[in-house]
């Protein structure tokens, strides 16, 4: 018999629609009332939060991480399922994936349609997540995201559609696997995300998106005394308009960690172009190129690195670029 910890955190999966079509949280989570009778699986359920996922903070992620650590170290759980709002699900998944060691399966899921809507996907996704968490082949894969019959890696998955039930996709790599009616099939193994545990999540790290004709105005407005780092969503392979790149130099000169990702949905940013504002110039000036993560995940990674005590530029660069 597998013992699986269920942590409900809120999100649309826990919400209901009213007569006007407005969706909001319930006093008590409808998912807790779902009577999931499964052979060979014992479920232990906790309503750890009841929050829409735009209300989830890094402190909440830390609470979840500590709860999961306890579950596996001292409570002999065989796996865990976390239900979560989809808006920031990928961020919580990435945070847990980076701060917890790989081992027993941790599976996150949610829904795009609330509990009383026609075609609600909540209970189906919940059951799928439990199946994956109880499967022997789900061990040592890091945090998994299960929605709409697909299994995705926390490192790469992202929300791609505002309302569609197939919103979670893995650009460049594709999903790790899928669920059929009777089977769970993994197509490939994922490389391990660098693991670093943290006990705090302090830090002001904004994300700034680049655009054609970008001036330095937004970067010039940033108060260096209140800035612990910055993530730039750059153009293409990792380039910036020339004036913006000049303003970035002020941050680099002040020792602010600057991390770059691409605003492209697919592919990997690399220091290639040598013109003014080009990636290779930015790299030589000290900009770190975060490997294969989007801006919201690069931001979490930088905050984790800083809170884990990586101080020197080379320590941080090694963490951010691998
Ligand atoms: N589908 C969802 O769960 C979206 C909702 N706004 C949330 O993230 O809480």
TrEMBL record:
Residues that coordinate or bind substrate: 53, 86-87
Gene3D superfamilies: 3.40.50.40, L-asparaginase, N-terminal domain (3.40.50.1170)
The organism's taxonomic lineage, starting at the top: Bacteria, Bacillati, Bacillota, Bacilli, Lactobacillales
First-tier enzyme category under EC: hydrolase
The Asparaginase/glutaminase C-terminal domain, residue ranges: 204-320
PROSITE patterns: ASN_GLN_ASE_1 (PS00144), ASN_GLN_ASE_2 (PS00917), ASN_GLN_ASE_3 (PS51732)
SUPFAM superfamilies xref list: Glutaminase/Asparaginase
Keyword Iron: no
Residues spanning the signal sequence: none
Catalytic reactions on record: L-asparagine + H2O = L-aspartate + NH4(+)
Domain L-asparaginase N-terminal, residue spans: 3-189
Pfam families attached to this UniProt entry: Asparaginase (PF00710), Asparaginase_C (PF17763)
Family: Belongs to the asparaginase 1 family.
Documented EC number(s): 3.5.1.1
Protein name: asparaginase
Keyword check for Hydrolase: yes
One biological process term in Gene Ontology: asparagine metabolic process
Keywords from the named record: Hydrolase
Record GO terms (molecular function): asparaginase activity
Active site (UniProt): 12, 86
Organism of derivation: Lactococcus taiwanensis
């Amino acid at each position: 018999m597998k013992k699986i910890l269920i942590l409900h955190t809120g999100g649309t999966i826990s919400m209901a629609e009213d007569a006007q079509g407005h969706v909001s949280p319930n006093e008590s989570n409808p998912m807790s009332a779902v009577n999931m009778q499964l052979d060979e699986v014992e479920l232990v359920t906790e309503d750890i939060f009841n929050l829409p996922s735009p209300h989830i903070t890094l402190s909440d992620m830390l609470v979840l991480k500590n709860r999961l650590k306890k579950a596996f170290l001292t409570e002999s759980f065989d796996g865990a399922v976390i239900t979560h709002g989809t808006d920031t699900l990928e961020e919580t998944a990435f945070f847990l994936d980076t701060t917890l060691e790989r081992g027993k399966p941790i599976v996150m899921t949610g829904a795009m349609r609330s509990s009383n809507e026609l075609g609600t996907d909540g209970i189906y996704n919940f059951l799928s997540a439990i199946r994956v968490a109880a499967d022997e082949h789900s061990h040592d894969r890091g945090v998994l995201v299960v929605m709409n019959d697909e299994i995705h890696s926390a490192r790469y998955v992202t929300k791609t559609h505002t309302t569609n039930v197939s919103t979670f996709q893995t650009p460049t790599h594709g999903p790790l696997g899928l669920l059929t009616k009777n089977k769970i099939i993994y197509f490939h193994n994922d490389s391990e995300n660098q693991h670093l545990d943290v006990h705090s999540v302090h830090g002001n790290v904004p994300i700034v998106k680049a655009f054609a004709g970008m001036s330095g105005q937004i970067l010039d407005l940033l108060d260096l005394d209140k800035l612990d780092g910055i993530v730039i969503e750059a153009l293409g392979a990792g380039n910036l308009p020339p004036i913006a790149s000049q303003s970035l130099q002020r941050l680099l000169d002040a020792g602010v960690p600057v991390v770059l990702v691409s605003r492209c949905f697919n592919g990997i940013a690399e220091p290639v172009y040598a013109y003014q504002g080009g990636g290779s110039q930015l790299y030589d000036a000290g900009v770190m190129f975060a490997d294969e993560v989007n801006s919201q995940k690069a931001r979490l990674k930088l905050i984790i690195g800083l809170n884990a005590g990586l101080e020197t530029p080379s320590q941080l660069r090694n963490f951010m670029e691998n």
